[in-house]
Amino acid sequence: MNTCPAGVTISSTGxxxxxxxxxxxxxxxxSGTHDVSASYDxxxxxxxxxxxxxxxxxxxxxxxxxxxxxxxxxxTLAAGQSGLSTITASSITGYAGTISLSCSVTSGPAGAxxxxxxxxxxxxxxxxxxTEGTATVQVGTTPSxxxxxxxxxxxxxxxxxxxxxxxAALGCVIMMCAPRIRRKWLTSLSTxxxxxxxxxxxxxxxxxxxxxxxNQLAASSGxxxxxxxxxxxxxxxxxxxxxxSTTFTLTVR
Length: 253
Prior knowledge:
Blueprint: E1 10-13, E2 20-23, E3 32-36, E4 39-40, E5 49-50, E6 54-58, E7 68-72, E8 75-77, E9 82-91, E10 97-107, E11 117-119, E12 123-126, E13 132-140, E14 145-147, H1 157-177, H2 183-209, E15 218-220, E16 226-236, E17 243-252
Parallel strand pairs: 8-17
Antiparallel strand pairs: 1-2, 3-6, 4-5, 7-9, 9-13, 10-12, 10-16, 11-13, 14-15, 16-17
Helix pairs in contact: 1-2
């Protein structure tokens, strides 16, 4: 999502139920396709609103100047992993200067979510004696997450039922194995047995009163598997701002 920079002029016609606005001078970060939408904060008369998102394709009008060339290594990652792509800059016409790099994701699978991230803060310096240099681009992906039923509320209801019922079962065993126990001990044993039965009933009720949906698995998808194209752009520190670009493929498993 991109925001219009300060100083952008928006002209509109119509003042009540509908308006037509024209926006010029939108600046985006890097070439490729960007999602753009318009929003209105609202006022005393018109409620706030947000427009639908439309794609905006940006191309770099500053083509490669041929002073140097850059290349990048491809990556294969599982969702949730991160990795480094090595960028190599090579002088073509004896270029001397510092080369700044930037990176962006320019294409991916249709409907992809949790797009990869691509960052670099490194530079490469070339000179008459150093005609090749390297830097790295950090690529990251989002992992998928799953919460098991054991970690959700209500997952231990069966355990309460087993523990409650075990008291009743133990009481029955003792009664059968001790037929000549004194009456006062039988009274105590009956009380113990009743407590065990009540415990099992309450345990069952507590477990059954929970919403069964709480025992379902909760999952969140990570970066969509597939092939992504990432573009690396380079700008030189020389007066002409010599440029070069390259692409590499990220495969997410």
